[in-house]
Design brief:
With about 170 residues, the protein is mostly helical. It contains 6 helices and 2 strands, in the order H-H-H-H-H-E-E-H. Helix 4 runs antiparallel to helix 6.
Length: about 170
């Protein structure tokens, strides 16, 4: 059964799988935030950008690319985005464990020109979240560490999948 699934794997399908994995991971973070009120810190938010880019690039690439070689380049780009996300997540884990100092912008920041009263209201209503304090632990591992592990596994999956498709088509 696994072999039959692997035999149907193409670069386009690998791009779709990358986009699907990124969408699942990003939706997990959004469910934690909006469903369980686990508000993100600055580094948590930065970990979401590569996933959003992978979703967009993966879907557009799968829809538009016809060449296996061009598909490979897009798969590799998405793989680098997964690696970037893993790097941010492990850095965040290091901040949580006091291995690294962490960024100065570890809380929500206001936008644009505002009156003093608008800024005061925004500060009073904004959930301030420190990058050093994990919002939740699952089996003794913080969400940032889980994300780093997931992104690392997706890097390995992407590399393995692209090598398999390339060898099979060679």
């Amino acid at each position: 059964m696994i072999q039959s699934l692997l035999n149907r794997l193409t670069m386009r399908r690998l791009l779709l799988l990358q986009a699907l994995a990124a969408a699942f991971t990003l939706s997990t973070a959004l469910i934690a935030q909006y469903g369980f009120h686990l508000y993100p810190c600055d580094l948590c938010l930065k970990q979401r950008y590569p996933y959003a880019a992978i979703i967009a690039v993966g879907l557009i690439g799968a829809a538009c690319v016809r060449s296996s070689k061009k598909g490979l380049w897009i798969v590799l780009f998405c793989t680098l985005l997964f690696a970037l996300d893993a790097g941010i997540a492990f850095y965040h884990t290091g901040v949580e464990l006091d291995i690294f100092k962490g960024p100065d912008a570890c809380s929500s920041s206001g936008g644009g020109e505002q009156t003093l009263e608008e800024m005061r209201a925004a500060i009073m209503n904004a959930p301030l979240v420190s990058c050093k304090q994990a919002m939740a632990y699952f089996w003794g591992i913080s969400m940032a560490a889980w994300n780093g592990l997931a992104a690392s596994m997706l890097v390995l999956f992407s590399i393995g999948g692209s090598l398999y498709v390339r060898r099979r088509n060679a």
